Amino acid sequence: MMEYKEVRQFLESMKQNLENKMHDASLSQEEKEEILKSIVNYEYIIELTDMNHFERGSVHQ
After folding, report:
1. Cα separation of 19 and 35, whole Å?
2. Model confidence over 9-56: pLDDT tens digits?
3. CA–CA separation, 20 vs 38, rounded Å?
4. Contact predicate 7/46, CB 8 Å
């Protein structure tokens, strides 16, 4: 089972890879839009991961 920091780092890494792909001049507008949607999805997943982690922390205190 992955710990919070590992999950967070993995998600950030995936998001960063997508952000790096956005700089590829050979991408079509459609491809850029799809990558952007994926980036937004990763941001949302990261936010949920943070909320889940900190909510659990506050429950156990």
Report:
1. 8
2. 999 999 999 999 999 999 999 999 999 999 999 999 999 999 998 877
3. 13
4. no
